[in-house]
Design a protein that fits this description.
two-stranded antiparallel ribbon, 8 strands, alpha+beta, about 15% strand, DNA-binding, six-stranded antiparallel beta sheet, homodimer
Amino acid sequence: MITHAMEDYLKTVYLLQEGQEKVSTSAIAQQMEVSAASVTGMVRKLAAMGLLNYTSYQGVELTEGGKKIAQEIIRHHRLLELYLVEIMGFTWDKVHDEADKLEHVISEEFEERMSEALGHPTTDPHGHAIPAKDGALQEIAYETLTEVDAGNSVTIQHVNDNNPEMLRYLDQLGILPGIVVHVVAKEPFNGPLRLRIDQTEHFIGREVAGNVFVNPQTI
Amino acid sequence: MITHAMEDYLKTVYLLQEGQEKVSTSAIAQQMEVSAASVTGMVRKLAAMGLLNYTSYQGVELTEGGKKIAQEIIRHHRLLELYLVEIMGFTWDKVHDEADKLEHVISEEFEERMSEALGHPTTDPHGHAIPAKDGALQEIAYETLTEVDAGNSVTIQHVNDNNPEMLRYLDQLGILPGIVVHVVAKEPFNGPLRLRIDQTEHFIGREVAGNVFVNPQTI
DNA sequence: TTAAAAATTTAGGAATGCCTAAATATAATT
DNA sequence: AATTATATTTAGGCATTCCTAAATTTTTAA
């Protein structure tokens, strides 16, 4: 039987797994804000269930079965986020926490009816891809704004969704998925980035910039 | 800290409490499908938290604090049921189970946005009253169809929502809240009831009739 | 009123999921 | 290669929520 906690672990491993193949227990612990010891215990259980492969001290890797469950939960989460914004009128900073709770309890029918109401969407309000039903999610490892050299224009792809305050700030600046941003300059010593969006200039710090993922191609 | 299990206990006690003042542990156990021993344990904990009054062997009674939490959960449940039917297109037999899971995890904002989308409704799809925010729920103890004498007409008030199969059956017959039913006859030895709804006659068993609550007043 | 039946509680235990502290394995550095 | 630092696991515990079986209290009935 899959518990909510197990679903959370599988989701976390799935999202951390992008790029790398093996995920360390400490990375999981940090992401989930639980102790490393707790992760070891849970990972053993999930390995015994065949949902991931685990070798002591070597990290974990999801099996196909584990991936399927993770994708299902991520689909729930992202559909919920979009539904909350588009249909229910939530602001985009509030939906992550709400979706984190709801993702574990909604039925397949609930999922399907949300998808229908939204016209079977493919991205959530923060720009993350919504996995298709039983379809893999292949998110490209975009670079963040901090990595863009001055003088280049980029398109915002997605932003991290777990910090409501930062989301409100980004919304205020108009830094939203799909928007084109020109990086005018980057101040040295981890100084602010000077951005131009639609003739308006903004200065944002490196921490914020590191949470904004962009498409390197200029449009 | 209030857990989901505690919320379920408070909700159950609240609904059982209507009419009587004290609720026995065995009644709670039967309703929740857990052992009587489990109820004793939980009831002690809830009493220690000041959410209900409990005397050994004498049953329990919610305090004002306990009532408030119960009402909140019942409001969630019934708003969810109506939202699922009216906005999301669920059939009325599916919404009870979905609402039972969701009622514990939705935020106050989610509750408020549902209420708004529904125009601040006062009854759910099965005819149960939706408690107002911080408002008491006073459900009159209606009689069931089994108690109506032959020859009388009654208005369906509400139906029990926990048996999907029975709900589909009632829907098929058109036995829905607000509908007027004439009890033509009642066959002896716990035999069927002969009903007339809009010129059409139906025969239903006593078990079903016992789950249909009606208003004794003829309209 | 006393014995039997029913209801309720107590005792002891299991599963889940988290924790801290101590032990051990791996990686990095001199 | 030895030592230090870091990462990971093991051991032992705690809270929650359920269970069964045995003991106790209350109710019912002879």
